[in-house]
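Marked as duplicate of an earlier ticket. Keeping the data here for the record.
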Amino acid sequence: MPYISLSTMWAKNRFSRMGEFVVKAQELGFTHIEANASLSPQMVDELIETSVPISSIHSPCPARLSSRGIPATNLALSSLDENERSEAIDFAKETIDLASRVGARAVVIHLGEVPIDLSLQDKLYWLCQQGQSFSKEYSDIREQLVFERSSKASFHVDAAEESLEELGQYSQQRGIMLGLETRFYFHEIPSIDEMGRLLSGAEKGSVGYWHDVGHAEVQQRLGFAPHEEWLLRFKNRLIGVHLHDVLGISDHRVPGRGEVNWSMIAKYLPPGVIRVCEIGEWNKEEYLPGAIPFLQEKGILT
């Protein structure tokens, strides 16, 4: 049986207890689970009680409120507010501790964002969905976004790098790899060039690249970095992959129910890479039995 994990993303609002989710995941052929950032402390405890192998954990986990009364997921490791950044680091460290305790191999982290005019970004995504990605309006907005992000990114990427250095040292002491994930939104960190900078400055033994198939595909469709370029540049640092399909610019679909070039992805996945199906909770259960056979057929699972 191939090593393949299912993210608890699909469990959201679907099961009353995590034990029920684990039973269903195993019935579907999944061998491991990835715990994501939406799990409450009680749900994490329930997951641990099942003794299911946990491949990886998406930071910050479990879900909790910060001292500001906002979800921990809203805190940025790239924040220029030192109190916010420090608290974000603390939540990430707790996730690393959890990963060490349950025997997970890696923690997936988001490094933050560059503050830009999100209404412009929303407009760009809307135009793409309307089939207007070759229009002058789309081109103009895209140029505005690129300019605004590049003019503001420097200090935030510096802060993200500082956070990563501290977390890399912490995770190495606990035998956990950190996976820097390809992001969905243009304003998020890292861009493809920022990923190169962050990985080159981090210890190979503690920090690696986590490829998100859906996010990279959407970035390509919006006219940003080509999907395959991420894999070409960072294949030697690849530690894990989130597997989900894309229709248009809508991701987190069951593999095989979209338009992703899976044969291209398969070329870059060595045997030891952690494979996680990260499927949105809105996907119908009847779609999931086809996921593993499809990924085997495409060479993603061997």
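See parent ticket for discussion. The first strand starts at residue 5 and ends at 7.
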